[in-house]
Design a protein that fits this description.
elongated, alpha+beta, 5-stranded mixed beta barrel, 102 residues, 2 helices
Length: 102
């Protein structure tokens, strides 16, 4: 009787910990971030990747589709405002939308 009670309590504890970790990861992933900075190029030809350098010196590699990557690389050196989120595990910026800022 005692062993089954301990097993049930341990199982409930593990399940509740699993749900709490999952909620935190989802909240971080869905948190919208707006970054303003200058577009720079990372990597070598034929696979250059757009990145952004913020005004405080932070650099983020931008994860986006090929079409957006080419458009961003064409605005290299220009100030832009990016909207998306930062991946916690890699630190990459996942792009949702962007616009050129004057």
């Amino acid at each position: 009787m005692k062993k089954s009670f301990i097993c049930i309590m341990l199982a409930l504890f593990c399940i509740s910990m699993g749900f709490s970790v999952n909620k935190n990861e989802q909240a971080d992933k869905n948190t919208k971030v707006v970054i303003t900075g200058y577009i720079i190029s990372k990597g070598n030809m034929p696979f250059p990747q757009a990145a952004i350098q913020t005004t405080d010196g932070q650099e983020y590699l931008i994860i986006c589709n090929e079409k957006s990557n080419k458009k961003l690389l064409n605005t290299q050196g220009n100030k832009v405002k990016l909207t998306g989120y930062i991946q916690n595990d890699t630190g990459f910026f996942v792009l949702k939308k962007w616009k050129k800022v004057k």
